[in-house]
Amino acid sequence: MAPQRTVQLSLKKPTHAVCVVGVETLVDVYSDVPKGASTFGVSGSSEVKIYMVYDPARVAEPAGRAHWPLDANVDVVVAADTVSKNLNDLKVKVSYFGSQEAGALGHSVLYLTSVDVSLDVDTGRTGKVKKGSGDKGTWRWGPGGSGAILLVNCDRDARGSREDLHDRHLRSLEDLQDMSPMVLSCGGPDELFESHKLVLKASPPDSRRLRVFCARGGTSLSDYKQVLGPYHQDYEVERLPGESDIQFYVEGLAFPDTNFSGLVSLSVSLVGTEGLLEVSLFTDSVSFRVAPWIMTPNTQPPLELYVCSVTDAHGRNDKFLDAMAHLALKADCKLVVCPRVENNNDRWIQDEMEFGYIDAPHKSFPVVFDSPRNRGLRDFALKKILGPDFGYVTREIQFAGASGLDSFGNLDVSPPVRVGSKEYPLGRILIGGSFPKSSGRRMARVVRDFLQAQQVQAPIELYSDWLSVGHIDEFLSFVPTSDQKGFRLLLASPSACLELFQEKKEEGYGEAAQFDGLKHKAKRSINDMLADRHLRRDSMHVQKCIDWNRELLKRELGLSESDIVDIPQLFFLKGAYAEAFFPDMVNMVVLSKYLGIPKPFGPLINGRCCLEEKVRSLLEPLGLRCVFIDDFLSYHQLLGEIHCGTNVRRKPFTFRWWNSVP
């Protein structure tokens, strides 16, 4: 360790200095030397370690009663290994000798008072503070990394309308569980702290991103005092007589974002207050990284299925709710029905929010990301989901309204993947936007920047602007599988649908009709659909758009063709944008092996829907169970499907994000 401070000695009077346990001090033995002196020797109290630092090429260590030469640039470094019980109770003595090695020509004496000043956090990521562990001021990624972690205190443990991070005062003792512990060691003689002080500091930017509470040992809220945070950049520590450790709690106030890497630092300084000027004698620093918001893919087990109760021209969606309840029961998943009084007849709950979580060694909890869409469900996440150990975050678009692509049906995440030598153990976020270098619709920058800044699920922007609604869940989904790969990417495929219909025509079923059994939709025979040049042209245009995304996904997720399943689906163009010709089967809800798939109402062959049979043949050999659900009137005709009208909170990853290397 490099010397932290230099102390000059004097032959005329003893020198007094303060040192910190374990911190090296350079002793200047050259500033005041007796005339005729050529060598020196050093001795000290047993509690003081003395190190001679020299160049072996220039000088050898003295043997016997010999001493160190004064002309060989030998440095004297001392360090105390224990805390002083009294002022000046540690001693270092330097004696100077002439060339004849007779009696000493003079002596310099240094009296040290040793104090224990250390700021410690959970650098080892074990959930507990361990003193003096590693380089506390540097944060490193990876399984061998180190550095403390801070949670954004974005849940609501006490009564109120906003997240806990907005409270300047502690309002619930449970709130301490969301904070990262920090311990200040401050052992030493009480008399020393009459002329010295400890100052805790945060830089101006960091003080806006964290808040620090000082604990005073009691069990009431008044025993916890905010000492650092917005508008409070430094704090003179109130050390009590005999106190050797002071407990602090640190909360995050902001997620990583475009102007914030997620790293924050705190420091404590021992400051001498004697004389006209205050002198900083020692500083210790710690670094935290704010935990990112993490999404969970369809391959994670479901915990809760959310769906809205609504009424429209066709009546209530009770049958759909019953189907969701049946599916949730099969998957052993809790069903949460959002009533009309809370959703304002807005059924698109996937578009309104996305469930994720934040994770630290000492605590983790789910966090809902509220989209800037702000329609009938705009208050649901804040008013009904935010609560104890359930956080909330949002990003609002300034000076403009949200576009359709800002809804979170346009936000997804892949399962964990490996791309070449690069691992993505938490998967990669997927969003939809315009074709590269075009001027089409994109997700708002404020949302894209937020997702990018989380670092651990590097986003991929797909091309979805070719769709009327513009959401990626209209042409892709991921499903878990029981094989070694662990998942498949499902892509909507007009080509596969036309091929299936052609096959059925050649088998003699050309008059079998699409939409058979629907009262509100005219039937279309297989022969009619295959002969419809406009439908064929539109579907082939859509196939080209999906194929462009297919190649991008293969490249960015490290997928092969065997990892992709083509789900038959036709589209038609309405103006320049595409819509599903029949209920869009990839727009499904995935609850473990149970898939809630929009019922396509395909041509019936021998009493069975050929589209359903085809999808079963593709997915059920992978260990999946297909449950086809009628969403035609309540969702499909309104340009959405089952995935759009549901939302799933899933189990977090067991992999800890700090073990990744972005």
From TrEMBL:
GO terms for molecular function: calcium ion binding; protein-arginine deiminase activity. Belongs to the protein arginine deiminase family. Residues 1-113 form the Protein-arginine deiminase (PAD) N-terminal domain. Its cofactor is Ca(2+). Keywords: Calcium, Cytoplasm, Hydrolase. The keyword Cytoplasm applies. Its main location: cytoplasm. It is found in: Cytoplasm. Signal peptide: none annotated. Residues 281-659 form the Protein-arginine deiminase C-terminal domain. Catalyzes the deimination of arginine residues of proteins. Residues 115-271 form the Protein-arginine deiminase (PAD) central domain. One of its GO terms (cellular component) is nucleoplasm. It catalyses: L-arginyl-[protein] + H2O = L-citrullyl-[protein] + NH4(+). The active site is at D351, H471, D473, C644. It comes from Peromyscus maniculatus bairdii (Prairie deer mouse). Its EC number is 3.5.3.15. This is Protein-arginine deiminase.
